[in-house]
Design goal:
Protein name: glutathione transferase
Radius of gyration: 17 Å
Strand order of the largest sheet: 2-1-3-4
Distance between the termini: 35 Å
Enzyme class: transferase
Number of helices: 8
Strand content: 5-15%
CATH topology of the largest domain: Glutathione S-transferase Yfyf (Class Pi), Chain A, domain 2
Number of domains: 2
Pfam family, one: GST_C
Shape: globular
Structural class: alpha+beta
Family: Belongs to the GST superfamily. Theta family.
Keywords: Transferase
CATH architecture of the largest domain: Up-down Bundle
Number of strands: 4
Largest sheet: 4 strands, mixed
CATH class of the largest domain: Mainly Alpha
């Protein structure tokens, strides 16, 4: 399976971590969508020329949630990461939609400002705080974000929360989120090595923008 990605992108990180959890290999292809040659090559596969993009035996998928749920449904030994039970799955889906529509959206909007050396507004930071309060509530109700065990919702949300490092965001007020991070990362094979590679890639990206 070819996987077109950038390690600094939280959505791109999700499928890599899901693959690690499933014990499957991805043929990782670092992709710079700002490079005309690489962008044109990707457009031949994905007309939106976005990353991540997965190619599995000629089947092309993009959008991170579509990719991670596909991987689980095709390669998972069971449905634990993306439960088939409609009620449980609805909660997993709600957390995924909360991530992409609220939490990650707010985080990435602020990161874009910081990279341009601009300051986010008080309103933006307050909205982010409210979203973090919601996640704190979710992982207070149960040990994981959507169920009593690890799901794709945890893995996708992990990427968003990890991206807060770009902002040097203080997680001390969020004791349950901190415990949840430790719980989730403890279940992903080779996470420490992955985290080191991700942080190095992030530092290199930030340096390239200065």
């Amino acid at each position: 399976m070819d996987y077109y990605y950038s390690l600094v992108s939280p959505p791109c990180q999700s499928a890599i971590l899901v693959a690690k959890k499933l014990g499957i290999s991805l043929n990782l292809k670092k992709t710079n969508i700002h490079d005309p040659v690489e962008r044109d090559a990707l457009t031949k596969l994905n007309p939106q020329h976005t990353i991540p993009t997965l190619v599995d035996d000629g089947h092309v998928i993009w959008e991170s949630y579509a990719i991670v749920t596909y991987l689980v449904e095709k390669y998972g030994k069971d449905d634990a990461l993306y439960p088939k039970d409609p009620k449980v799955r609805s909660v997993v889906n709600q957390r995924l939609f909360f991530d992409i529509g609220t939490l990650y959206k707010q985080i990435i909007d602020i990161i874009h400002l910081v990279v341009k050396k601009e300051q986010p507004s008080d309103e933006q930071m307050e909205k982010l705080k409210k979203s973090m309060d919601l996640l704190e509530h979710f992982v207070t109700e149960r040990p994981y974000a959507a169920a009593d065990h690890l799901t794709v919702a945890d893995i996708c949300l992990l990427g968003s929360v990890t991206a807060l490092n770009w902002l040097k965001y203080d997680l001390e007020p969020f004791a349950h989120i901190k415990a949840w991070i430790a719980r989730v990362t403890g279940e992903i094979p080779d996470y420490a090595e992955f985290r080191k590679e991700m942080e190095e890639a992030t530092k290199a990206y930030v340096a390239s923008k200065q």
